[in-house]
Amino acid sequence: MADFSILEYLINPDKRTYWVYILSSIAIAMIYLYFNKKLTKVNFSSKLWLHPSAKLDYYYFVLSYFIKVVMIIPIVISAKSVAFFINKNLYYEFGLNQIERISYETTVVLYTITLFIISDFTRYWLHRFLHTIPFLWEFHKVHHSAKVLNPLTFYRVHPIENILFGFRYSLSIGFVTGIFIYFFGSKIGLVEVLGANIFIFVFSLLGSNLRHSHIPLAYFSWCEKIFISPKQHQIHHSKKHFDKNYGGYLAIWDSVFGTLKLSKDVKVLKFGLKKEQMKNYESLTNIIVYPFINILRRRNA
Predict the structure, then answer these.
(1) Contact 77, 169 (CB under 8 A)
(2) CB of 79 within 8 A of CB of 181?
């Protein structure tokens, strides 16, 4: 097993909080605030950054790291294991069928694009299921209980949801990788920047951290039908639009499956759950325990 450290979140380009992404998001935010000065006071206010909800995000970020290391990583199957299983079974079923005519460069590009698209597609559906399947929604409520948003709100995720996303990642990445190994053998690889998938790197560099912020950065409407803007994800966090904008990086899935909401159509954003529900997610203990309590109450009702 790899040697994990909480410092990894700042130095690993695969993490949303990689220092380069944080700095780029700050730069984009500063440019945005220069042209929207009325939002400057809110975004520099201690009432935002020291709000009880924000402080809970900070505490939970540290706790969730230890939960991940101790509980989640040991039980989630690796993408490598899934890839080996897929490749082995394809070989036993169909024999050796490797494609030799496609160059290494073309294979790498195809693999990188396929991996990104399949991963984003499965992310969309798991996210949607977390909202539409009642017992899964009880766990996902933890993420939506944030009254204010900051980059660490991204990590306000119940351990059960983290496990589900871990399996989603391993199964989707492993499935694609196993198929590519079967057809292309050792020729597969990723188009990377600093060790991260180029698509993840570019999207993160262009302000992914602003999705969990109070910088309502929108794109042109035509662009928001393809890519999820920071404001579109903020719309998803708003109380009236939990059923919109499930997409991770691509808005195409929301466009195709009828869950798209454009930034121009929403003027007011109010984050968090219903008022009577918020008291159930105001402590580290409640964040972990309350979803189980609520599920039991539903079963016994």
Answers:
(1) no
(2) no
